[in-house]
Each structure stands twice: as structure tokens, then as C-alpha cells.
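Worked Example 4.2. Consider the chain below.
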Amino acid sequence: SNNIIHGDLTTSNMMLDDSEIIFIDFGLSVVSKTPEDKGVDLYVLERAFSSTHPNSQSLFDAIMAAYEKSHADAAIVVSKLQEGTAQQPLRMTLLLRVWMGPGIYLLIPLATTQVLTKNELVQLWKNMECKW
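Applying the procedure from the previous section yields the following C-alpha cells:
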């Protein structure tokens, strides 16, 4: 409701306190009003449920029903989610891994404003060569 895009909305970034869900790890978050950005958050959450929590479709459906009741722009956001992954823009975050010593690495997020479709991201990944 405050246009906060989590950036990594997975169940690993949720904690349960009694009956309340607390969201954590806002390191990739941004503020955005665009339905596309909100749809990406929901897409990531949907993928997290389907890949790590088998037989959880009914729970995700309940989350979506609550989302639709509580957000004025839910219809357009859900339509962006339903457009499918090929057309869904994905915000790319690059992490620089720096060796600090035996078994110690520092991960530094590299900010980018570039928005890529899934197909563009796959092509970029195929063309990428990392030499250290």
C-alpha cells in the first residue's frame, strides 16, 4: 500500500511471530508505483511458493485474494502478473563477490536501473564472460 517493492519477496524473507507475518531483508527494495514492478514482486513470490513449498497453491491463492481486496490497483497488477514470464520485466541486480580471506566473501550489490525481459536476461547471461 506504500508502493514498496520488496525486490526479493520469498518465504525465506518472512518471519512468523504468533499469527503475524513480518517481512525482512529489504536490501533490494525500491519505491515504485508501476504495476509492472508490483507484478514482479508477486511473480517472485509465486515462484518461491511453487518451487520450495509443494502443494501450496491454495495458500498462494488466498494471498492473492487478500491482495485483491486490499489494494486499489490490484486488477492491473494481477493482469501484469498473468501476462507471463516472457513479457514480464525482471529487474536485474548484480552482485560483486569479493574475496576477503579464507572462507570469507563480501557481496556488494551493484545498482542498475536497467529493466530486462526474461529473454533478454537469458541472452545476456549466455553472452557474459567473467574473468578474474
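Helices lie at 35-52, 57-70, 74-82, 118-127. The first helix runs from residue 35 to 52. Compare this with Example 4.1 before moving on.
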